[in-house]
Amino acid sequence: MSYCKQEGKDCIIFVTKEDHEAPSNAELVEDDPNDPYEDHGLILPNGDINWNCPCLGGMASGPCGQQFKDAFSCFHYSKEEIKGSDCVENFRGMQECMQKYPELYPQEDDNDSAPSGGANTAPTDSLPASSTDSTAAAATENPATS
C-alpha cells in the first residue's frame, strides 16, 4: 500500500512493488493547439501570430511593443500583391518609436558593415585580370605560326 510523507514543502510518495506491477491508469491529455504556453513557432496552428515566440526576441513587449505588433500583424495578414506594401505607415510608426529609445533599440551603424579602410582600397595589383586581358596576353606570348 502506497502512502505519502510530508517533509517541509516536499511530499515523499512511497509505493510498493505491487503498485509498480499494475498497469498505469493515468490518462494523457491531448495537446491543445490553442494553448498559449505550449511551444509553437511564430505562427500558431490556427494562423495567428505567436507573440510569445522567442524568435521575436522580445520585440512584442517593451515601449514599442504595440507598434511592433501593429506593423508585424499588418505584414502577416497583408493581401497586397507586394506583401506588406500597405503597411508602410505601421513600420514608420514602429521606427519612430524605436528612435525614441536608442538604448533599447540600437541603430545599425553604416561604418560597422563596411570593411576597414573603405570599399575601394584594394591595391590594383591584387585585382584579377579579366578573361579578355588574359586571352590577349596569351596571344602575344604565343603568336600563331602560319
Q: What report would you give on this structure?
A:
One of its GO terms (cellular component) is mitochondrial intermembrane space. GO terms for molecular function: protein-disulfide reductase activity. Monomer. Can form homooligomers. Keywords: Disulfide bond, Mitochondrion, Oxidoreductase, Protein transport, Redox-active center, Translocation, Transport. The chain has a domain at about 45-100: Orthogonal Bundle (Helix Hairpins), CATH 1.10.287. The chain contains five helices and two strands; from the N terminus they run ββααααα. The chain has helices at about 15-20, 65-75, 90-100, 110-115, 130-140, and strands spanning about 5, 10-15.
Layout of helices and strands, plus pairs?
Layout: E1 3-7, E2 10-14, H1 17-21, H2 65-77, H3 88-99, H4 110-113, H5 131-141
Antiparallel strand pairs: 1-2
Helix pairs in contact: 2-3
Judged by helices, strands and strand pairing, the structural class is: mainly alpha
The total of beta strands comes to 2
Low-confidence stretches: 113-143
CATH class of the domain at 43-100: Mainly Alpha
- Percent range of helical residues: 25-40%
Count, helices: 5
Q: What does the main sheet amount to? A: 2 strands, antiparallel
CATH arch. level architecture of the domain at 43-100:
Orthogonal Bundle
Our estimate of the beta-strand percent is 5-15%
End-to-end CA span: 108 Å
This entry's quaternary arrangement is single chain
Q: What's the alpha carbon Rg, rounded to whole Å?
A: 32 Å
- Output the CATH topology of the domain at 43-100: Helix Hairpins
Order of strands in the sheet with most strands: 1-2
Shape: elongated
Order of helices and strands: EEHHHHH
Subcellular location: Mitochondrion intermembrane space
GO cellular component, one term: mitochondrial intermembrane space
Keywords: Disulfide bond, Mitochondrion, Oxidoreductase, Protein transport, Redox-active center, Translocation, Transport
Subunit structure: Monomer. Can form homooligomers.
